[in-house]
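Name: Crp/Fnr family transcriptional regulator
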Amino acid sequence: MIDPELLAKAGATLKKYDKGEVLFHEGSHAIFYYQVASGEIKMNNYNDEGKEFIQGIFAKDKSFGEPPLFSDFKYPANAEAITASEVWLLPKEKFLKLLEEHPTIHHKFTSTLASRLYYKAIMVSEISTQEPEHRILRILDYFKKQEAQGNTAPKSYKVTLTRQQLADLTGLRVETVIRGIKKLEQKGELLIKNRKVYR
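Structure predicted for Crp/Fnr family transcriptional regulator:
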């Protein structure tokens, strides 16, 4: 998102997180801009029964948790390291100053946040009304668009998400995701090769 050299120049620090370590908790105040240098971070919530719902997964060069930096509300979710990770942390005031000094980056953030809002709106609709197979395809197509760098050919995107992560992203049970993936393969929507799923 933001060039690491520019982040460092603006006063960002690079911090290491172990797998499972929490970067911030739901309900806490936003004091940093976060950008992944390596590894993977997820934003999640837990319901009263302890079931996890993943709001998003962020890999190298992706930022997360920005909305509270622009307004006076607390984080609506937790951020947790999926793997050992390194993350850039830039204090809120310095981040806002950086955006003021670089309108192009500011515009990029506006576009990114609009895309995420669209994704959230789609997923709310999907979870409340659509069948499991449809939900699975929708989330896979979203990640394919984000990660495939323009390659939209059928079965060209290797899914890196686990079945558990797919379940947590779609509000489904793992068993339902596994059955759904098998049905989608039978319909020709997915390819399973060496236990890996391709869309």
